[in-house]
Structure formats: C-alpha cells, structure tokens
Automatic annotation (TrEMBL), chain A:
Organism (species): Niastella caeni
A Pfam entry, by short name: DUF4249
Protein name in the entry: DUF4249 domain-containing protein
InterPro entries attached to this UniProt entry: DUF4249
Lineage of origin: Bacteria, Pseudomonadati, Bacteroidota, Chitinophagia, Chitinophagales
Length: 307, 793
C-alpha cells in the first residue's frame, strides 16, 4: 500500500522517461567514504537460531567487495530488562548473554565471520537466548575501542486467525511456466492505534536458508494500522507461491522505531533516479559512525499448503 | 528592518505632502492616449514622447497625463511598429487614439522589451512579446513562453525537460505565475516538458525577479505575468499551426462591432493517435495527450469603462497498461488539469482616478488510479481558490502617482482522498480538507523627487488564517498517532499570521541614456508546494501555513546599472542581488507525501541565501538582434537536521549560466534564429559508500544473501556535468508582402544541433549478480528536427 502511494509520480515519470530516454555508461567520480559500523541485530520470541547480531563495515562505493565486510572479535552482549513507569529501564544483569562468532552444527560447523550467536545454541538450544513478549532488550557492542548500544522491545504477538491462498496467476519466465497463487493472512488488528507489522515466510526454495534476510518477505507492505485500526484484516501479499508448496508464515509485530527503520530500508533499496531523494536508514543504534537496527520481533507463525 | 520601515514611512509622508501641494494645480487638463495597432488591438508598453519628454503606456496601451493648456508634439513608438507623430492642442480634458502600423520585418526580430528599462523605475524585470518568442527555436516546434524566459539572466530551469523555474536561488513554488492576473498553481503539461500556455493565446510575458511592486505578493522569488491577447474587433479571423506533436487553432472576431471582441485558442497533442496508427498492437490502449483552451472576451462599455473575461481549461490524460498473458497486470490512469475563469472591470473615474476590480476562480484537480492483479490504488486531490482583487491608481500630477488596493482569497485545499486494496482488504483514506483566508492591502507612491531621481515606495500588509472545519490527528515524535484528535469548527482559527512587506525602488537617471537603480523587497509566502523530487508532478500538493508550518519569508536587495549606447542599438544591464530566505521547507528523506494525514511530521525547516551578478547585453535593432545573458551566482540552504547543520548548495545552484539569443534577417522570405545555453551542472547528493544489509545465508550453497545499501555523506556535494546546447531555426514566409487574406509561414528548427548528451539524471547501477558497479547517465533529447506550419486568414 505504501508503495502504491509513492507509485503515482514515480510510475508516471518512469513510464514517460522509458519511452523517450536513452542511457549510457558514465564515469561518476565519488568522494571517499567515512567507514561506518553496520549493525544488524535481532531478538525474537519464536526462533532461537534467529537471535543474532551481524557486524560489518561500509566501504567505498567502487570497492570490489560485494559481500559483508565482517567486523570480527567484537564484544557483543544482550541483556533483558523491564520498562518502568518513569520510562527508565531496569536491566537484569543475570540475564546478560554474550554473543560470539561460532561454528554451529546447524550450519555444518562453518564459521560465519561477523555473525555473533549465543553459543548455547550449539549445545542446548532450549536454554539459548530468546525474547520474551513484553520485555525490553539492551544490545551492547564494543569494537575498535568504541561502544555502541541500542534498546528494543519484544511486543505481545498478534494472533494469526488463518492463512488462505487464491488469486491464481501464470508466472512465465525464460525457463519455466508455473501457476502460482497468492497468500492472504487473516487477523484482528488490536484496538490500540499505532501497531506495525512486518511479514516473512519460508517456502520450499528458502527451506535451507538461514537468517531473516534469507526468508521471503513482501518488502512493499510493512504496514501501520493508521487507516485500519481495530479492524479484522484480510491482507493479500502480491508475491506468488508455487502450488502445493508448504509455507511457514511469520507475522512480526514490531515497535514503531523498528518499523521506521525497515520502512527506510525498503525506500533506500528502491531509491534511484531524479524522482526520489537519497534515503538514509533511520538507525536505532547509538554511538559514533554506526548505522543499523536492533529489531525486536514478536513473531506469530502458521503454516499453509498452497492450493 | 526597522530602519528601512522608518525610511519607507518617511517617503510616504513626503509623498502625501507633495500630493496635497500638487492638487492645487487645478488648471491642468488630462490627456489620455490609447495606443492601438491597425486592427485596433492595444499596443502595450509603447513609448510616448510629449514635447521630447518620455512616458510609457501601460500593458493595455493606455497612458494618462496632466498637461497645462498649450500645443504639444506627441511621438508614439513601440517595438515592431512604425513611429507615429501628432501635434495637438490641449484646451480641455482630451482623449486621443494613436494607431501604429506594424513593421513586419521588425516584428520578426528578437528584442526583449527593454527599451524603457533604462528610464523605468523597475529593476530586475524582463518582458518578452509573443511575436518575438515565436521566432526562437524550440523543441519539436512547440512554442512555450515559460520555457523562453529561462533564457534570461537570473531565471533558470531545472535542466532538460523541466518546467520548474528557479529565480535567484528560489524554489519552483516561489514564483507567482499569473494568467491575466489569475494565479496558476500547476502551469505544466507532461511532467513539465511543456507549459500550459498556448503561444497563440499569449500576447506577452513579463518576469519580475526583484524589486516587486507592492501590488504583488504571496510568493517569495518572482512574478511571472502571462498576458493573453485581445480579439480582433473588426472582423472574424482564424489562425493556427500544425506541428509534429500538436496542432493549434484560434478564432477571433467582434462580438459587437468596435466595442467587443472574443478570441478562443485551442490545441491538442496527437502523439497517442499517431502511435496507434503506426503500431496499434503494441500501443493498445496506452497513450498520453493533453489539450488546453484559452478564451478571452472584452467589452468596451464606453470611453471610461471596460470588461474583460479570461477563461482557461486544460487536461492531461495518461494511460499505461502492462499486458501479461493472463490479462493486464498493471494499469495506470491519471487525468489532471486547471480550470481558471476571471472577470475584470476597468474604470477611468476621472482624470485622476482609475481602478480595476477582478473576481476570479481557479481550480486544479487530479484523479488517478493504479490497478495490479491483487492490489489497487485510487487517488484524487486538488485545490480551489476564489479571489477578489481591487486596485486603484490616483495620479494628481505628472510627477506623482499613488496606487493602492486589496486582495482577498479563500483557499480550499483537497490534500487527497484515496483507496488502496490488497486483495479484499481495503485501506480507505480521506485526508481532511483544509481551508484558509489570505488577504493583503497595499499602498505605494511613485514620485519624481527631482528630474533625475524617482522613488517608488510601497507597503504591503498580508494576512493569512488557516481555519476550520477540519479534524487534526495528533502524532507523536516517532510518527505514530497518539490516538487523539483535535476538531476545529467552520471558520475557527487554526493558525494566523500577518506581516508587513515594505518595498522600495530608487531610480537615478544619469546623463547619456544611463541610470542607476536600487531596490529592497520583503516578501511573504503562505503556501508551500509539497514535493520531494526534481521533476514536477500533478500529485505535488500545495499545503497552507499552519501551526507547525511557518510562512516563508524573503528579503532581497538589488542594485543595477543600465546603459543604452550606439544610438539606442545596444543596451547593457548589470545587476547584483543578495537574497535571504527563512522558513524554507524540505521533506525528510523518503517522506511520504500522498495520503499522509501527518504530512507536517515529514517536514523540516531551514533557511536559504542567494547572491549573484547578472549581465545582460542586448542588440535591439538592425538585421542582427538578440542578447547575451550571463549570471554568476550562488544559492545555498541551511537546515539544522541536514548536513550536520552546515550550509549546502541548493540543488539548482548554478555558478555560471550563459544564454545567447540571436535573430538574423536573411532577406524578405527567410530569417534565422539561434540559441546557445550553458549552465553549471545541478548539485546532487551522491553516495560515498555502500554496505550490505538484510543478510542471510544459503546454507546448502554456502552463499550469502544480501542487499546493497548506499551510504551518503554531504548534501548536494556532487555536480552533474555542465548543461549546454545549441539550437537553430529558420522561418520561411513564402509571400511576405501578399495582400491576400490568407498568410502562412514555415518554421524549421533543429534542437540540440551538436547532439550534446545533457544528463537528465545520473545514477550508479549495482549489479549484485554480476558483481559490477557502473555509473549511468540517462539523457533525453538528441538532435531533434522540428517543423511547424503557421497560418492565419
């Protein structure tokens, strides 16, 4: 829905320009970059393996690397706490867990540099770091002599009433022609205004993948309930799903600042051309030269076979 | 400021004293001169010498002056006309009509109406006659007065195919665009590729960049006044033209012989129709067209009273459908346009007083929809103005003139109603309409303090009040609604502002056709255009000043030296200006403007500064005419929340801007014209680095999955390549001296002669699959020929 709103001028402009414009390679000389620490951190209440912190570093635009430039050897901790009535936090020191770069059997004991886990995952997954709805979490990172922090909340999860499939269409590309269907999630929006959700799913094709970034997601419909507060929702995603595929669906309830970050992320990844302005990510991490988000995900799940 | 206000007050008091003295000269008689052409159409801005002392007619060709009894020699001249001389005797109040015969060859030359620039107490102004604009080379033969004024120093466009006009560092919403005195909010067709002004309907265009007279207000940076022409009062005439992408037809004639006339001009593009004929299968129902209709009627009630009716309507219609195997998967349609109507009553009450009363309505509407297979979006928006305006002129003596008046506008804003769907889920949105009252009163005096020194001092006082009925949703600092709303009853005040706007212009005439001019202008703007992009879109919203949105304010000082030489063949203007602007509005990166009840939460506010020097050298007569304009300037903005609070270049900051316009008479049948423009590239914010985010791993293939995100540092720290272009046109008139009713000519043009690939935009393409990073430049118009056939009968 958000995308549709921005589509009006952009769609009109690109359609016009596409008709009459020409393009050529052009040498754009850019200024040197001030490297930033990139933080991608999650705490959720359902998937213990998906509570992790990835640290990386930004690079000059024309540098050859295309993958994460990992920041290794950092000290990373997550502490659970409570928000008090006076808007201050009470952190439970006993809950503090240190996350480390580790070889986990879940990934064939391959080391993922710059990815920090609760190492308990390797031995006793049941006792590993896990978010509790209603609690707040403090992320602390020390690297290169600098300290960075962030606080997020794991909200109460929303209940998914049901998932249905429909809106079939023929998806044709160079190699295959498939009939696909679209997925609709049915749920009741809470009566309090200001709720925001993200949506993820795991399909056959993404079954072996790891990480929130490797799941399927409809990046165009992170949503607020400003227009539909308290309504019973029937939200159809435009993505296609192969018939008879089994889909694990995750509806993620997030606090506003986390939503704002992922909203800016979606805008930044689409951003190009003369019809938009450069988008900076709305970072939630405090500290010097740092960009990123500590995402508290309150996850509800359901599974559907696509028909 | 306070010091300046005191000076203005002193001048007003001085003016009052001098005026009371002047009324004692009761034995003076009023001479009114109406300057008309051979078909009784007024010749605006004519120069009238009465016993060798120059005066100037107004835009309607009328001048009134007080003279003592006696004999006078009257010499009337105007661009493109033969000079007329009359000897008259004044014994009582007298009105005469002076008819000027057109000089075809001179009409064809390109001359900015600057002949009176040197002696006129108005700095920073340029006027162009439509007959001159029509001879210049333009893209695809589409004559466009709004495009042409960007060839003048200090007036810049946004780049290739942009109708945004940027005057002395101001934004595109800071220009008061007037059609016969009626504000036009969206003066563009086709994303700014063309303006809404049909050359056939326009008589002239004037742009005021500084030293704004007190009767103008509501915008910070300029007044762009487009005046339409009157119809022929003698006989019915038709004219038109057939071009590559559009055709035009005008019809004019008398409604009442000698007293009333009409003119109606229409044009329509036919790219869509041609494309469907050539490739019906691939075009399908896709297409774009626009049309517009201009109409004007006048009724001369008697020697002292006249009525004028102006009407404009235009529509753009764009449809795009992306056909898929299972039927259309994307369908987009947008229709937008202005409708404007205004009625003006002009009255000469007596030899001292005249006034104008105008009632206008201005309406802009957009309706659009997008349909996807499961998602859809419908959006509409618009605004309507109702305005009444009354201007008075009191001329008690030749050396003093008073002007005063008021304006009142009732604004109705429709920020948007929309409906989006995701399957069966509907997201209905209705942003509450907003209403505002805008009013202004002004008084100014034009005094010849000595034979060399002229002062025009004015004070405008403007008032703005955003009122109910409306309901405001209250949002928290994180952008989330608090759940609270605030309701305002009909007429209840939401936010009110009022400011004095002093204006002063000084003219000091030097010997040998030279003068010095100085001006100070303060302007206030209560409406802002909500746009985040470099292009202009019909979905851009005008938003009123509110509790959070403060009115924009600007102050400008301009000084100039004006010199004519070579027996009037040449004119040189040199102007310097310094302008400051406060409450400038920008939107947060990635701001959502449409259907956003909390649009104020997306705004940030800052200040701006612009300064520069403008040179304008014009050759006004001879076989070769034209001008060279050069601007050296700097425009910057400062926002606390942008660029770490440091000043950064405005996107359209253009250090060097050059335009060369030439017209050469090749003989009786042929003439040539050429335009060369050069401008420093626009300032852009480009990324300095990149990083990966939303990281995941394909465990089976041991491959990372990620998205590259750009990292930005300083704002507008990158310069696009310079923009330059050379265009030529040839006009062929087969029978220039034909006495037959039917006349025609051909205009052959070549746009971008040396095929300069001027960047429309640049971007960096990051291909994560091929692991390449490559800069790209998108450009629009290569060398483009154009041909237009114009006719009249």
């Amino acid at each position: 829905m958000k995308l549709a709103k921005s589509y009006i001028p952009v769609f009109l402009a690109f359609a016009m320009v596409a008709i009459i414009s020409c393009e050529r390679n052009f040498d754009i000389v850019l200024k040197d970059n001030q490297p930033q620490l990139i933080v991608e951190a999650y705490i959720n209440n359902e998937l213990p393996l998906y509570n992790y912190v990835i640290l990386g570093r930004s690079q000059n635009y024309y540098d050859p690397g295309f993958e994460n430039l990992p920041v290794t050897g950092a000290t990373v901790t997550i502490t659970e706490g409570t928000l008090l009535a006076n808007n201050s936090y009470q952190w439970n020191a006993a809950s503090k867990k240190q996350l480390k770069e580790a070889r986990l059997p879940q990934f064939g004991n391959v080391l993922l540099p710059g990815v920090y886990f609760d190492t308990t995952l390797a031995t006793n997954q049941a006792n590993a770091l896990m978010g509790t709805p209603g609690k707040h979490y403090l992320l602390e990172i020390e690297t290169g002599g600098k300290r960075h922090t962030s606080i997020t909340a794991v909200l109460l999860p929303l209940t998914i009433d049901s998932l249905t499939s429909g809106y079939h269409f023929i998806d044709e590309d160079e190699d295959t022609t498939q009939t696909k269907a679209r997925l609709t999630v049915h749920f009741k929006d809470p009566d309090t205004i200001g709720n925001t959700q993200l949506y993820y799913w795991r399909t056959y094709n993404t079954g072996d993948n790891f990480g929130w970034g490797a799941l399927g997601t409809n990046r165009f419909t992170p949503n607020t309930d400003d227009l539909v507060n308290g309504q019973y929702m029937h939200l159809t995603h435009s993505n296609g799903f192969v018939l008879n595929d089994s889909v694990n669906y995750y509806m993620v309830n997030v606090e506003r600042k986390v939503y704002n970050f992922w909203d800016s992320f979606n805008k930044a990844r689409q951003n190009a051309g003369p019809f938009s302005t450069p988008v900076k990510l709305q970072s939630t991490i405090s500290g010097e030269n740092v960009i990123g988000c500590f995402s508290g995900f309150s996850v509800s799940t359901k599974t559907i076979i696509i028909r | 400021m306070g010091k300046t206000n005191r000076k203005v007050s002193s001048l007003l008091v001085l003016g009052l004293l001098l005026m009371s003295n002047a009324v004692l000269y009761a034995q003076n008689h009023n001479l009114t001169i109406k300057v008309l052409d051979s078909v009784q159409l007024p010749v605006g801005n004519a120069t009238i010498k009465i016993n060798f002392k120059s005066r100037f007619a107004d835009s309607t060709g009328i001048i009134s002056t007080l003279l003592t009894k006696g004999k006078y020699r009257i010499v009337v001249s105007a661009v493109g006309h033969y000079t007329a001389t009359h000897n008259i005797t004044i014994n009582s109040d007298t009105t005469i009509q002076v008819f000027l015969r057109s000089r075809e060859s001179l009409l064809q030359n390109v001359v900015v109406s600057a002949k009176r620039n040197i002696m006129r107490n108005q700095i920073s102004v340029h006027s162009l006659e439509m007959a001159q604009i029509q001879k210049l080379p333009v893209i695809l033969g589409e004559v466009d007065p709004l495009k042409t004024i960007t060839l003048l120093p200090g007036v810049k466009n946004g780049g290739e195919a942009s109708a945004g006009i940027y005057v002395r560092g101001g934004g595109p919403d800071q220009n008061l665009v007037l059609l016969d005195g009626i504000p036009v909010y969206n003066p563009n067709h086709l994303l700014g590729f063309f303006s809404v002004f049909n050359g056939d309907a326009v008589k002239n265009i004037e742009v005021i960049k500084g030293g704004m007279p007190a009767e103008y207000g509501g915008r910070l940076s300029s007044v762009i006044a487009v005046n339409t022409r009157d119809g022929n009062k003698d006989s019915v005439k038709a004219s038109g033209g057939i071009g590559l992408i559009s055709s035009r037809l005008s019809l004019e004639g008398p409604l009442l012989k000698k007293r009333s006339s009409f003119v109606i001009s229409a044009r329509r593009t036919y790219i869509d129709q041609v494309a469907r004929l050539i490739a019906p299968d691939s075009i399908g129902s896709n297409g774009y067209f626009f049309y517009d209709i201009n109409a004007k009627a006048d009724y001369i009630i008697n020697n002292n009273n006249a009525l004028y009716l102006t009407f404009y309507t235009g529509k753009d219609d764009f449809t795009f459908a992306d056909n898929d195997n299972d039927g259309p998967s994307r369908e987009f349609n947008a229709i937008w346009g202005n409708t404007i109507i205004g009625l003006t009553w002009k009255q000469q009450l007596n030899k001292y007083w005249k006034h104008e009363l105008s009632v206008v309505r201005n309406d802009f509407n957009l309706n659009s929809q997008i349909k996807f297979s499961t998602n859809g979006f419908v959006f509409s928006s618009g605004l309507t103005d109702h305005q009444v305006k009354n201007d008075w002129v009191y001329t008690p003596a030749n050396w003093i003139r008073w002007k005063g008046g008021f304006q009142y506008t009732w604004h109705s804003f429709r920020p948007g109603a929309g409906n989006s769907t995701a399957g069966v889920q509907e997201f209905k949105s209705q942003i509450n309409d907003q209403y505002a009252r805008e009013a202004a009163g002004y008084v100014s005096t034009d005094i010849n303090v000595t034979t060399r020194l002229n002062v025009i001092a004015g004070l405008r006082y403007s008032y703005f009040n955003q009122v109910g009925p409306t309901e405001r949703v209250i949002y928290g600092p994180d952008g989330a609604p608090t759940g609270e709303t605030e309701y305002f009853k009909r007429g209840e005040r939401i936010a009110r502002y009022h400011y004095p706007e002093p204006r002063i212009n000084l003219l000091y005439k030097l010997p040998e056709a030279a003068s010095l001019k100085l001006s100070y202008t303060r302007t206030i703007q209560y409406l802002h255009l909500a746009t985040t992009s470099a292009a202009t879109f019909p979905s851009d919203l005008w938003v009123p000043a509110s509790r959070l949105i403060q009115p924009g304010k600007a102050e400008q000082i301009a000084a100039g030296y004006f010199k004519g030489f070579g027996n009037g063949k040449y004119e040189l203007n040199v102007e310097a200006y310094y302008k400051t602007m406060t409450n400038q509005l920008e939107f947060k990166p990635g701001a959502r403007l449409l259907l956003n009840q909390n649009i104020e939460g997306e705004m940030i506010f800052g200040s701006g500064k612009a300064y520069g020097i403008e040179l304008f050298l014009q050759k006004k007569t001879g076989k070769l005419t034209g001008w060279i304009g050069y601007t050296l300037s700097r425009a910057e903005r400062t926002f606390t929340d942008m660029n770490e609070g440091k000043a950064f270049p405005y996107r359209y900051d253009r250090t060097h801007d050059v335009s060369v316009v030439a017209n050469y008479n090749l003989g009786k049948k042929w003439e040539a014209s050429a335009v060369f423009v050069y401008g420093t590239g626009n300032a852009l914010t480009m990324p300095t680095g990149r990083f990966v985010y939303s990281l995941g791993y394909n465990v089976r293939d041991q491959e990372p999955i990620f998205t590259n995100i750009s990292q930005y540092d300083k704002i507008n720290d990158y310069r696009m390549p310079a923009y330059h272009r050379f265009d030529i046109a040839f006009t062929y008139t087969p029978k220039p001296h034909s006495t037959k009713r039917f006349k025609s000519n051909w205009v052959f043009s070549l746009y971008n002669v040396y095929n300069r690939r001027n960047p429309y935009f640049i971007y960096i393409d990051v291909d994560e699959d091929d692991r390449t990073v490559q800069g790209k430049q998108v450009f629009l118009f290569p060398v483009l020929p154009g041909v237009t056939w114009n006719f009249k009968f």
